[in-house]
Here is the input.
Amino acid sequence: MFRSLAVSALLIGACAAWGQEKPTVIPPPAAGEAHASGASEKADLAGGCYWGTQGIFEHVKGVKRVVAGFTGGHSDDDGGAESVMITFDPKVISYGQLLQIFFSVVHDPTQLNRQGPDVGAGYRSDIFYMSDEQRRIAQAYIAQLGRAKAFPKPIVTRVDAFTAFNQVDLSQQDFMIKNPHLDYIEVNDVPKLASLKRLFPDAYRSLPRQYQ
Here is the structure.
């Protein structure tokens, strides 16, 4: 399992050009986790456009698969949140460490119902817990970051019970891998990937674990 690091958050949008703000250093999760017993677990996270969220987590060691889709609906207009379903090996990376990357690199957890220029509830910051243990870890970590004033504004990330995940079609899967030179990928997501490599060197995987 990779070592815990104090890391910085790049506060940038996921789907369109947006200015990059000053990084914010955050601590790793303090809450303990139950001993990993299974070969794999799942995490469902929403942090803006799923293109970038999927693309970043595909480069994390211990992640077996990342699927882009919507949780709680089928689109941005019916209550769904753009999200990713992550299958990971808890013996390599913990749920708490996934959350550290989520808050540090993937998105800005202080933006309410938006990420950069992408506005609407579909782009909300949301953690969909799939067990009481995940709920406990997520809530404890958000409280920890709040007490530490890790961000200049309050965290607005929701913690909701998982309901249903609806994956998007193949044209939307691995979008960052397929379109590395698209303007908004280069402006928004390539810097995030560089931050993942720099801030989490023990967790970074150069070759992504692709959906297809």
